[in-house]
Amino acid sequence: MPTVIENRKVDNYFRFLRNWDDESKKNLIIKLTQSIGIETVKERDFSSCCGTWVDDRTANEIIEDLRTASHSTQQ
Questions:
Q1: Which is it for the CA torsion 46, 48, 51, 52, positive or negative?
Q2: How confident is the model at residue 43 (pLDDT cuts 50, 70, 90)?
Q3: What share of the chain in percent tops pLDDT 90?
Q4: Does 8 reside within a domain?
Q5: What does the pLDDT read at residue 37?
Q6: What's the total number of domains in the chain?
């Protein structure tokens, strides 16, 4: 099924691009050809999607601080 979807994308682009002049098409072909294989897909780590937590406290100290802050704001 993904192949069918990919073919539709290519067909849609071609319908748009077929009216371009030959020089523009050649330039696009060159750029597309140069772009193939330049970057390999890097394995992504979920932590790269968000900031990192930097703290010298232990997990238990952080939990205790959160509990203390929560109790002091509720009063």
A1: positive
A2: low
A3: 29
A4: yes
A5: 75
A6: 1
- Give domain status of residue 59, yes or no: no
Pinpoint the alpha helices (H) of 1-75.
Answer: 2-17, 22-35, 59-74
Is 65 among the domain residues? no
CA distance 24 to 64: 64
> What's the token pair of residue 42?
């890097």
Q: pLDDT (tens digit, 9 = 90+) per residue, 13-33?
A: 889 898 999 999 999 999 988
Q: Half-sphere exposure of residue 45, counting CA atoms within 13 Å on the CB side?
A: 5
Q: By C-alpha distance, which of 6, 32, 28 is closest to 17?
A: 28
Domain residue limits at 1: 1-39
Q: Is residue 7 part of a domain?
A: yes
